[in-house]
């Protein structure tokens, strides 16, 4: 089951770093890979109402296996209060077709 990994505060942007390891605990190599993220807007019952997709994810040049997700203030302000789905998408090993490589939850609150 997904867990809340991040709280976003209305009126603020946020840069959120994530690192990924393989099953042996070694950092993944993201050289040449692209990333994006999707936020699934959910109602109070947890039913998906819509999805927002953004390309604002950067791969760390100095640390293997690390990405930074950028939630700009306008995006955060447009999200309804509550808990929503967050999917990290990448084309790593998929020949340019992006797939969901991680799913978690984010909470949006007033500041």
Q: What's the quick description here?
A:
The protein has 111 residues and is mainly beta. It contains one helix and eight strands. Helix content is 5%, strand content 50%.
- Give the SSE string: EEEEEEHEE
Question: Unreliable stretches, pLDDT < 50, 5 or more residues?
Answer: none
Specify the number of helices: 1
- Main sheet strand line-up: 1-8-7-3-4
Outline: globular
Q: Which structural class matches the secondary elements?
A: mainly beta
Note the main sheet. 5 strands, mixed
Q: Mean pLDDT across all residues, rounded? A: 91
Describe the protein in words:
The structure is a single chain. With 111 residues, the protein is mainly β. 5% of the residues lie in helices and 50% in strands. It has one helix and eight strands; from the N terminus they run ββββββαββ. The protein has one helix at 73-78; strands spanning 4-9, 14-19, 35-42, 48-54, 57-59, 66-71, 82-90, 99-109. The strands form two sheets. A five-stranded mixed beta sheet has the order 1-8-7-3-4, with no helix packed on it. Strand 7 and strand 8 (99-109) form a beta hairpin. The two termini are 28 Å apart.
């Amino acid at each position: 089951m997904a867990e809340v990994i991040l709280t976003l505060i209305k009126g603020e942007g946020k840069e959120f770093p994530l690192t990924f390891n393989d099953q042996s605990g070694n950092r993944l190599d993201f050289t040449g890979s692209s990333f994006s993220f999707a936020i699934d807007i959910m109602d109070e019952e947890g039913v998906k109402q819509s999805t927002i997709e953004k390309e604002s994810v950067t791969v760390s040049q100095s640390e293997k296996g690390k990405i930074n997700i950028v939630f700009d203030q306008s995006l955060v302000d447009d999200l309804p209060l509550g808990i929503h789905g967050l999917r990290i998408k990448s084309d790593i090993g998929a020949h340019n077709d992006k797939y969901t490589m991680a799913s978690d939850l984010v909470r949006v609150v007033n500041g």
